[in-house]
Amino acid sequence: MLLLLWNGLCATFSFAIFPFLVIGVTGGIVIGALPGLTATMGVAVLLPFTFGMEATRALVMLCGIYIGAIYGGSISAILLKTPGTPAAAATVLDGYELARKGEAAKALSVSAIASFVGGMVSTVMLITISPVLASFALRFGAPEYFALAVFGLSIIASISGKSPVKGLLAGMFGLLISTVGLDPVTSYPRFTFGQINLYNGFAIIPVLIGLFALAEAFVQMERIFEKAQAIDTRFKHGMVSLKETISLLPLMIKSALIGTFIGAIPGAGADIAAFVTYNEARRSSKRGNEFGTGCIEGVAAPEAGNNGVTGGAMVPLLTLGVPGDAVTAILLGALIIQGLQPGPLLFTKNADIVYGLFSSLLVGNVLMLLFGLLGVRLFCRVVELPKRIIIPVIVTLSIVGAYSMNNSIFDVWVCIGFGIIGYIMQKVDMPSSPIILAVILGPMAESNLRRAVLMYQGSYSFLWTRPIGVVFLALAALSLYSSYRRAHS
Amino acid sequence: MKKANYCVAIVFILLSGFVFFQVSGFQQTLIADDYVGAAFFPELLAWGTIVLAVLLGWLNFRNKFQEDSRSLSDLFPKEILTALEGLTVLCAYVLLLEPLGFILATIALNIALLLLFRVRSLITMAVFPVSISVIVYLVFCKVLVVPLPEGLFYF
Predict the structure, then answer these.
(1) pLDDT the model gives residue B54
(2) Whether pLDDT at A227 is above 70
């Protein structure tokens, strides 16, 4: 394993890959810092740029965008009280208060360091846990994969914000979308209406870009003439001191571990991890009462937690082919486009690519720290770019992204259609992430359920006779119950 | 918001009805499928959707959602017209994409959006649409070899 990792590090520093990692991390930070551009949207919009690239290069760039964007979201959260990404929503609580006190540089530097610690801890966990999980995953058959898909889908309820019922409905809609096209078992055309373009179902990329990028662009168009809230971003105090950093280290590591664990659960993402770690930091801190008034721990914990998700979310993605969150759902698409099949065999068939990815995550986190600390002043200017310029760029890239997947105008119309759906869903407080998870997990759930029933000759006894499946189904029930409890507390 | 929630529930019930209608037309396949043929999963989902939609309506009726006094006009204010105009521009762009080609159509799209957003600077109006179109075209077509619509003038 160490030899593979060393080879991966050598490859990462090669001229063929390193520039793409630098571009990815830098681009990710800029995308994350721009309000309205999420990590998911950044990876989705820039995915078409990787179609013509070699697999390692493409994945390294996308992962660079991912880790950069999760950190970048904190920049506008701290400076403008506008989280660049949902993952930075918890950072606003204390980050903006620190900025108002003239301690923006301190908040931004803590955010960079905490994100670095979170990313590194989660990558180390990914490297050490993934091979073990991969060997475990080899025992999976159709019943286990079905139970796993159900578990992944059950977490939709917990990422549905104020209303799990609306999230579950969105998930059902996503599952229905996933049934469009030829039936995976009998090849019978379903909901195709004679349209040959629908025989393969909806392509995931136009759906993703529509639901996230275009929907957000429509929302921003509506608010285009609103005056943005601005604050004084001049720095009255310097960056965080070494002493303060050392005192924050245990909290960062703890938050990173929580973030990694949350990330490894399919369906749970960086936004949840950030709030969970923020709450845990508040609960365990002696200065818990000061949280929300400009407490540095209130920035360190959610930032370590949300970047902890980056490595954690890749554990189920690489070992089981199940995305940990919306970004890794797109990365799953990227892997498939590159001709790679995520799952246990990826570690044996494409070990060079996997360890190249691990190495680039380690190096990418170092780059993120460097750029984060060096670029504090520059970021203040990036977030000041006018929306009137950003929106046309988003729209252009969205259309190009949707078209270039299959060189199909039909896909562009699909993208616009889902953009409208996503826009209306935002209006009625309905989350769109469950649709993406359902579209990804739907075919896995359906085909494995039907295969399992056929294997058991019409019997459903596999639901209680296969131990691994039972564990996943129990976790799914627990997840639904805890979402219900949280929604009613 | 209460009315919006009822609308959501009704839309999903109608969607389920549509699924049932479509599924009823699926022909039985020849293989022995233990009752899990092509119609099985969509039907299962349609039942689930109906249950959840009814639950949403019931919870809404019992005021189980957080206090939200926004009316339908708050959810869809008059500023929505800007988004609708943007959508119209976008649809026109997609229709023109193949006949005009990527660069010309994208320049037109960006000029239209800047006009919609009331950008007054002539320099921005002249430089931004051309530069974004050419940069994206060069990056996609020339650097990454991803084809884009060529149109009348082959670019």
Answers:
(1) 94
(2) no
**Mean predicted confidence (pLDDT) in B107-122:** 90
- Return the closest-CA partner of residue A48 out of B147, B131, B50: B147
Q: Which of A388, A390, A426 to mutate to test the interface with B (most CBs of B within 10 A)?
A: A388
Q: ∠ CA(A76), CA(A79), CA(A82), 5° rounding?
A: 45
- Residue A181's DSSP bridge partners are A190
Residue of A nearest to B34 (CA): A458
Q: Are B144 and A53 in contact (CB under 8 A)?
A: yes
Q: Give the whole-angstrom CA distance, residue A37 versus residue A47.
A: 14
Q: Among A54-68, A165-179, A224-238, name the one with the lowest average pLDDT.
A: A224-238
One-letter amino acid for residue A268 of the chain: A
- Whether the per-residue pLDDT at A202 is higher than 80: the answer is yes
Give the pLDDT confidence of B35-55 residue by residue, as tens digits. Answer: 778 888 999 999 999 999 999
B49 neighbourhood in chain A, CB within 8 Å: 169, 172-173, 176
Lookup: tokens for A316: 């189920």
Q: Under a CB-based contact definition with an 8 Å cutoff, are residues A416 and A145 in contact?
A: no
**Residue with tokens 């960062």, as numbered in its chain:** A252
**A181: DSSP letter:** E
Domain ranges of chain A: 2-487
How far apart are alpha carbons A473 and A481 in whole angstroms? 12
Residue A190, SS3 per DSSP? strand
Q: Tell me the two tokens of residue A42.
A: 């950044």
Rounded to two decimals, the ipTM of the complex is 0.92
